[in-house]
Amino acid sequence: MSRGKRYEEPKLNMKKVFAVVILFIVIIMCIIMLKGIFTENEEQGNIISIDYFAAYKDNKWGVIDSNGNIVIEPSFSEMIIVPNSKEDVFLYTYDVNYEDGTYKTKAINSKNEGIFTNYEQVEAISSVDENQNLVYDGKVLKVQNGGKYGLINLEGKEILPCEYDSINLLQGVENTLLVSKDGNYGIVDNDGKVIIPPSYSEIQNLGNGASQGFIVKNSEGKYGIVDIGNSQVLELKYDAISKIHEGEYYVVTEGNNQKIVKRSGQEVLNANGKEITALLKNPENGVIYKVDNKYGVMNLSGEDVVEASYDELKEGKTGILIAKKGDKCGIIDLQGNEKVEFKYNGITYNEKADLYITEDESYNNEVLDSNYSVKLTGIVTDLNDEKGYIEIRQSDEYKYYNFKFEEEKEAEIFTGNTLFVSKKDGKYGFVDKDGKVIVDYIYDDVGMQNSFGFAAIKKDGKWGAVDRNGNIVQEPTYQLDDYLQVDFIGGWYLGKDLNMNYYRK
Predict the structure, then answer these.
(1) What is the model's pTM?
(2) Other CB atoms closer than 10 Å to residue 353's CB: what's the count?
(3) Per residue, what are the HEC states of 118-130?
């Protein structure tokens, strides 16, 4: 039998041992430091993830964070723009000439240091949403050099060179920018990718998303449709194209007549002078049209399905119409049968929840299921599609229901909250998720805890705030009854103009 080679006992490499020990100590220190940070934040009621907001005090503008701390001292004459609340990038204008509309811009960070200084101008790209609220593209900034515009991301990386005459958000479509060059328009996304080269005299959104395509106009004044890949959907030969479509059906105008055409260009309906206001969700059922200021429904053969005798018509659930006669609303089907009496000031339909919400003269609501049965009454203050709940005020209390109309506890919906509104003997306070009183019942009104941990409190006609632990961070001082929304971050309250999204003292 052969004998194996004899090995000596291994010796310790002291350098490696020392390195491992040091690494172990560093890891322990990091854990201790992180634990300290989290503990400190929990004790102070701070939020780990910091957001930034424009702030207004003593007629000057600055920036605060979501704990209510001043980040940029309010010392600027013009409002500071925060294009993305999660990013440490702020913009301000100066040397503003209101007569000729000229101004200069500068980008700074939370240390009040200038950033992106290699550009002549740095601006946020703004537009308005469907509710006419001012919105910014939170991913890119418009920059200028030599009179031409380009794009950078919020880290300062150039993603589109400065070679365009203008860059603006395409209204109604997120993450999509309209650019112009040499008198023609094109589309880029906010990654800087050119979707449609500048080759059209006009571009409009067809729907609410870029995937639905774009209405384009050529130099001869004719309209067509191209998709997000710049492939032609409808030939550029129409006098107009409406922002009305469903599936492969589109509403176009030739001469004085609106028509329905398919993607192939096949004509399926000539409206013969009637105005098409909507395609039904199943276009084979026809269209809603308007004639002599009255609304009706006709099928694709041009025959009336619902007589044009209504002052408004819009489709709710597929094949079901919310109708208005005079100043009252009801619900009918495509045969004209009345499903809900014409007695409401307004009716809306939520497709995801599959329910109707009515409103009477006193702004009270009834919530109807898809069979038109009244399931809830009160004042609906929120309907959240993502979390699947309805918030409704009933007898001065806010209650929550899922889309099956089952009542749910507030703590089951807002799992991150530490304070929950409670009422006793006509006064408001806050309890925790187990019902333990955190803030005594001493307030005339309160607001829900917001995503930053603060909740509004009202006493003797004045508003203040408490933090996530129920500690007062702002004594009730402010008269805010004419504000549409009362909300606080620390001692700062939300500005009256919600469109501007700023906080003030």
Answers:
(1) 0.83
(2) 20
(3) CCCEEEEEEEECC
